Amino acid sequence: MPADPPSAEPPAAYPARLWRTLERHRPPGADASADAWRSPVRGPWLTSVFGVVLLATLPLVIITGFLDWIAYGPRLGQAFPSDVGWLHPPVFDWPTRPAWLFRLTQGLHVTLGIVLVPVVVAKLWSVVPKLFDWPPARSVAQVLERLSLLLLVGGILFETATGLLNIQYAYLFGFDFYTAHWYGAWVFTAALVAHVLIKLPRTISTLRGPRLMRTTTEETVPEPADPDGLVARRPGPATMSRRGVLALTGGGALLLAALTVGQSLDGVLRRTALLLPRGRQHDDGPNGFPVNRTAAAAGIRPADTGTQWRLTVRAGSRTVEVDRDGLLAMAQHTADLPIACVEGWSTTQTWTGVRLRDLAALVDAPGNAVARVESLERGGLFRQARLQVNQVRHPDSLLALRVNGVDLSADHGYPARVIVPALPGVHCTKWVRDITFEEQPDD
């Protein structure tokens, strides 16, 4: 039997007696578990490469996630979760330009989160032998490092799992997705910052060493024993080179990208979004683009949207009711605008309807008024939404009556729906029955 490689572990620190006692009292199977991981490609270099990839991309996922929370309008009390105390990024009114802003931020957040799954799995695979180290730490500093690592690994697995389930509309967990995902993001972000501060110097020095990616499978040998214990204690023969591991991981990421990115684009690529339940084109008709919530699911009956339907517009003591023919008789405006959903899909369509600012003028609403839009839908988390001043006043903000030259379908919000540049799709309220213009609340 080959001898164990020389240990690179530093001597036990205070309280040394505790660590030595743990070392003497090893749990059953500890050595067998540690020796079961025999791949010679594991080591500081491969782990560092995966770490650098994640360091370059995860901050973008985090930032776009926080931006999407701001896009929901925390100043109007409708971000989810709404009551987060001081635990939030700087808040500002979400801009309406460029019109594709939310399409970009949410598309990046979801698509990049999916594409990074193979990299996350590969990074965890590269460090999994550390889970079987005994003793698990040899100093108080290592205990703190392990705790931060536990939060980091647990955080990214939790965020990835709940995010993927949300995309698939599979709410298997018994808690609110928005609240859990929000606080999970903060835990993961804090752990990531701590991990980077601890590991970045060693990562840099490792990557400045030999370029191990150039070796073939036959030339692949284990790295020297390292202080982190990433190198296998009893490595077996190589079945894949480090270059092969990177190619396999990159290929998996590219495959997921090919099966996902089409949901955020229009055209032929939308048909390749096979992993997303709502991201594909329904048919080639004017109303053939995706929907999240159908009229049937929302409980909208034909009688609700028939000839008796009226839109009620209010501002202060002034109230006006308009039927659909009356809205069609008003000045019509057409705009090409995207609609983007929190699950990551988006599409640009041509919308025609009445400008929201014209409806505000109909009831003499003040120039700094926000709008509260209510739906015929009787239940649901997004049966109403509030729009910022800049969203009400934008020249392309519409109460849409038609799309792509035809009347809205029932699933797309007939008889009228809101469409606003850069607004999250859930706030582009469908089946509108009431719009109230009111003074903007104080921050």
From TrEMBL:
GO terms, molecular function: oxidoreductase activity
Gene3D superfamilies the record matches: Oxidoreductase, molybdopterin-binding domain
Organism whose genome encodes this protein: Micromonospora marina
Protein's UniProt keywords contain Ribonucleoprotein: no
Region (Disordered): 215-234
Designated name of the protein: Sulfoxide reductase catalytic subunit YedY
Keyword Transmembrane applies: yes
Transmembrane domains' residue ranges: 45-67, 107-128, 149-174, 180-198, 244-262
Keywords: Membrane, Transmembrane, Transmembrane helix
Chain ranges of the Oxidoreductase molybdopterin-binding domain: 305-441
